[in-house]
Design a protein that fits this description.
Strand content: 35-45%
Number of strands: 10
Protein name: Glyoxalase
Shape: globular
CATH architecture of the largest domain: Roll
Pfam family, one: Glyoxalase
Largest sheet: 4 strands, mixed
Distance between the termini: 29 Å
Strand order of the largest sheet: 1-4-3-2
Number of domains: 2
CATH topology of the largest domain: 2,3-Dihydroxybiphenyl 1,2-Dioxygenase, domain 1
InterPro entries: Glyas_Bleomycin-R_OHBP_Dase, Glyas_Fos-R_dOase_dom, VOC_core
């Protein structure tokens, strides 16, 4: 079955650090690259780290559930077990969470797990999971 895939390009201030984070820690296979950019396969999606240090600035945040959520972020919706495994991988690596893994809307429609991390260039990633995929857009 084919499915849409997204493509996302984002700035980094060190290509080697991007390779260690996305390729090493996240386990994203590397695709094409040049001196100032590198493609990664993020669970079947193409993300591209571009060397652009002047673009690596902290994003503004907004309050959500008592957390300051970075307004600019990207990430994935994972199966619950994959989400737990990835959170554990970050913990085992001694990685600091921006927002620790927690469950929102527990026992309610749209129950979801979420956590935020920051890559070495300051880009924020959110990894989420839902108890029931049919409720991803539940109001």
């Amino acid at each position: 079955m084919s499915r849409p895939r997204f493509h996302l390009a984002f700035p980094v201030n060190d290509i080697a650090e991007a390779r260690r984070f996305y390729g090493g820690l996240l386990g994203c296979p590397e695709g094409r690259s040049a001196e100032n950019w590198v493609d990664f396969d993020l669970y079947g999606h193409q993300i591209v780290a571009h060397y652009a240090p002047d673009e690596c600035t902290p994003p503004p945040t907004g309050a959500v559930d008592g957390h300051q959520v970075p307004c600019r972020h990207f990430g994935l919706l994972l199966d619950w077990s994959d989400w737990e495994s990835l959170a554990e991988k970050f913990r085992d690596a001694g990685f600091e969470f921006v927002i620790e893994p927690y469950v929102r809307f527990e026992g309610q429609p749209g129950e979801q797990g979420t956590f935020f991390v920051r890559d070495p260039a300051g880009n924020h990633l959110e990894f989420k999971t839902f108890r029931n995929d049919d409720q991803i857009f539940a109001a």
